[in-house]
Design a protein that fits this description.
The structure holds two protein chains of two kinds.
Chain A lengths: L2 E5 L2 E3 L5 E8 L8 E6 L5 E7 L6 E3 L7 E6 L4 E6 L8 E8 L10 E4 L3 E5 L2
Parallel strand pairs in A: 2-11
Antiparallel strand pairs in A: 1-3, 3-8, 4-5, 4-9, 5-6, 7-8, 9-10, 9-11
Chain B lengths: L3 E4 L2 E4 L5 E7 L7 E6 L6 E5 L3 E2 L7 E6 L2 E6 L9 E6 L6 E2 L3 E5 L1
Parallel strand pairs in B: 2-11
Antiparallel strand pairs in B: 1-3, 3-8, 4-5, 4-9, 5-6, 7-8, 9-10, 9-11
Classes of the chains: A mainly beta, B mainly beta.
C-alpha cells in the first residue's frame, strides 16, 4: 500500500525557514518523480515544486523560485522541501504527491497524495 | 504559465442529476489534462487523467472529454458522496497549474 506521510509544518515568523519532509512507503521511491502542492486556507490547489526520480532535475513555481529547494534522499525514501525567506502568503497546507513518471513531463499525474502538513507564517 | 479557468466556480445540484464542469486552458495543451476531487479536510484524489481516461477504482459515472483548450468533467448521476470540490490540472507544461476549483453542493 502506498503511503506518504508529511511532517515538519508549524508556526514560523516572516523571513524564517522551515524544512518539510515526506516519508514514502509501498513503492519503489526512486522510480517516480515527486511534487509538493500547497493549499492556502479556503483556497485552491497550487503546484509548488517537482523533482525527478534521481533527484537530478528540479522544477519550481515562480512564486517560490529562489526561496524554496526541493530534494530527495532515495536511500531514506524521503522527499524534502526547504523553505527560506517565508512570507505570510506561504501559509498553507503542503501536500506531497507521487507522480506516475520518473521525470516530470506531459504524461504526469498525481496518483497518490499525503495527508498534508500545515505551515503558518505569522508574527 | 498556462492558466486554467474552471466554470462554474460553484454549482448546486441534486442526487441523480447529470452535472458538467468545464475547464479552459489559456493555450492548447493537447490531452494533458487531469481532474481531481477533494473533500473537506482531505487530500485530492485523481479521477480522470489524459482528459478522458478513468483512474483505477473510480466509478464509471465519472467521465472526461476534450482536447486542445476546452475540457469537461461529467458526472452522469450524482451520488451523495460526489459532493466535493473538483479541480482540473494541466501537465502539458512541467510548471503544472490547477484550475481554481468548482464546488459542487447539494441543492
Amino acid at each position: 500500500e502506498v503511503q506518504l506521510l508529511e511532517s515538519g509544518g508549524g508556526l514560523v515568523q516572516p523571513g524564517g525557514s522551515l524544512r518539510l519532509s515526506c516519508a514514502a512507503s509501498g513503492f519503489t521511491f526512486s522510480s517516480y518523480a515527486m511534487s509538493w502542492v500547497r493549499q492556502a486556507p479556503e483556497k485552491g490547489l497550487e503546484w509548488v515544486s517537482a523533482i525527478s526520480g534521481s533527484g537530478h532535475s528540479t522544477y519550481y513555481a515562480d512564486s517560490v523560485k529562489g526561496r524554496f529547494t526541493i530534494s530527495r534522499d532515495n536511500s531514506k525514501n524521503t522527499l524534502y522541501l526547504q523553505m527560506n525567506s517565508l512570507r505570510a502568503e506561504d501559509t498553507a497546507v503542503y501536500y506531497c504527491a507521487k507522480d506516475i513518471v520518473v521525470v516530470p513531463d506531459a504524461g504526469s499525474k498525481f496518483d497518490y497524495w499525503g495527508q498534508g502538513t500545515l505551515v503558518t507564517v505569522s508574527s | 504559465d498556462i492558466q486554467m479557468t474552471q466554470s462554474p466556480s460553484s454549482l448546486s445540484a441534486s442526487v441523480g442529476d447529470r452535472v458538467t464542469i468545464t475547464c479552459r486552458a489559456s493555450q492548447s495543451i493537447g490531452s494533458y489534462l487531469n481532474w481531481y476531487q477533494q473533500k473537506p479536510g482531505k487530500a485530492p484524489k485523481l479521477l480522470i487523467y489524459a482528459a478522458s481516461s478513468l483512474q483505477s477504482g473510480v466509478p464509471s459515472r465519472f467521465s472526461g472529454s476534450g482536447s486542445g483548450t476546452d475540457f469537461t468533467l461529467t458526472i452522469s448521476s450524482l451520488q451523495p458522496e460526489d459532493f466535493a470540490t473538483y479541480y482540473c490540472q494541466q501537465s502539458y507544461s512541467t510548471r503544472y497549474t490547477f484550475g481554481q476549483g468548482t464546488k459542487l453542493e447539494i441543492k
